[in-house]
Amino acid sequence: MNSSKARPAVVITRVSERQWHALDDDRVVGRGEASPRPDGRLFLSIDSWHGEVFDRLAQAMLPGLPKPLYTVVDEADAELTAQWLRAGLTVRRREWEYLVPTDPAVTGLGDVVPPPGVTVGPAVLGPLRELDDALRAEVDWPDMPAEVVARPDGPTAADLPRFTVAAESGRAVGLVRVAPLRRPRLGLVAVRAGRRRRGIGRALLAHVLGGFHDRGIPTASAEVKESNEAALALFDGIGARRAGSALELVVR
């Protein structure tokens, strides 16, 4: 075997504050990047064809960046997971990815209505911000899925179309946040601590999923943390199917 192909001789160059290139005879054979998320955490990504190039990029990147650092991998990608573990990251949590049916005949949500005194509908900025602050006080917010973490200063007017809110006595008490992807993603389903176990979460899902069904969208997706037993039971109970899992890894 040609050793130059098996073990590429590369030079790692830091091309900007958070970007690195791996060069082989001036040809880019790998790229590494650290991207800040809305909650301020830095997430790593490395794109390379060779395992050694990946290792060299990781060795160059990690010492020069503030800790902690995170990345997310598809658990089915054993090779990529092993590369990050080899670089010194450890598993922080697992999230199940669900495919969620929208047909009320499948979800069993067709007859679900909000509890007395609760309405479900579009978000209004003031009450939404108030709810956002309350949920942050109740929930370990950095434990939310990385791609759906809201801005540290709360939602803005531009975010309103992504939210459906449950309101009681003029105050928002629960929400669903939808990422507008090709297959809509239910990024966050949350209810105030004092209003849980009353059917508000099911009413929110009935409203949102029913709306998707009316628009001809057969499935949505959702990610649920493995340790969130209540959310797992909620999605399992409406016929959602586990389609895979993702690992969030960290180095501190």
From TrEMBL:
InterPro entries: Acyl_CoA_acyltransferase, Bact_Acetyltransf, GNAT_dom. GO terms for molecular function: acyltransferase activity. It is an enzyme of class 2 (transferase). The keyword Acyltransferase applies. PROSITE patterns: GNAT (PS51186). The keyword S-adenosyl-L-methionine does not apply. Residues 115-252 form the N-acetyltransferase domain. Its EC number is 2.3.1.-. Keywords: Acyltransferase, Transferase. This is GNAT family N-acetyltransferase. It comes from Amycolatopsis nalaikhensis.
